[in-house]
Amino acid sequence: MNDALGQLREVVSLLHEGGVAGDAVDWQAAAAELGVESFPSDYREFVAAFGAGSFEDTIFVSIPRPGNSAAPLTVGRLPDDVLEAESMSDWQDSGARSRYALADMLVWGQTNGADALCWVTSDPDPERWPVAVWARQDGGWAVHECGMAEFVLRVLRSDFDECPLSVTTLWGRGTARFLNFRDEERILDEGVDPWTGESMDPFADL
User: Fold this and answer.
1) 72-122 pLDDT per residue, tens
2) Which of 80, 83, 123 is nearest to 99 (CA)?
3) How, if at all, do strands 12-14 and 176-180 pair?
4) How far apart are CA 141 and CA 17, in angstroms?
5) Are 8 and 55 within 8 A, CB to CB?
6) pLDDT value of residue 25
7) Which residues 6+ apart lie within 8 Å of 60 measured at CB?
8) Residue 5: partners with Cβ closer than 8 Å, 6 or more residues away
């Protein structure tokens, strides 16, 4: 097991004991569809253990869905309209603009503050893909030399010089709960807020 993922699993628990955990992905088909050789091992192991979903309704993790790219929480490239947006050319380190191409970004997640969480896939070896974050409220793109699992772990440990995200809910929190997207949909269909356990029926107490 990837060391960062092993450490992350020690501090992350499922929101609901016995809930849905993990998703199956046809990794070969996903790689072919997205034009990469493979995916980072820490991420593949994370998907097997937890799947698509969110940490504390704050960091949302997507999975590849070959043949179903329009589904919620699906890994994909930045859309053309996003690539053409003026704000997408903003970098926190101006020198990084010449080193990284937005066309190489592969989006594996997002935050509830509309930050984009990506890999830079220019290296053919996915184990060397760094994490790139477009922070909506904090000056644009920044690249962090770590993988997906280490990135989340470092956010929980406040192990960056400053929070790399526009939202600080998880910054330095230490631990987090995770809710698989399929479990969330099931609970919402029952009329219950999956994070609070409260009824979503406005007339429930009347």
Assistant:
1) 999 999 988 888 887 787 888 877 777 888 999 999 999 999 999 999 999
2) 123
3) parallel
4) 36
5) no
6) 97
7) 53, 54, 73, 109, 110, 111, 112
8) 42, 45, 46, 49, 149
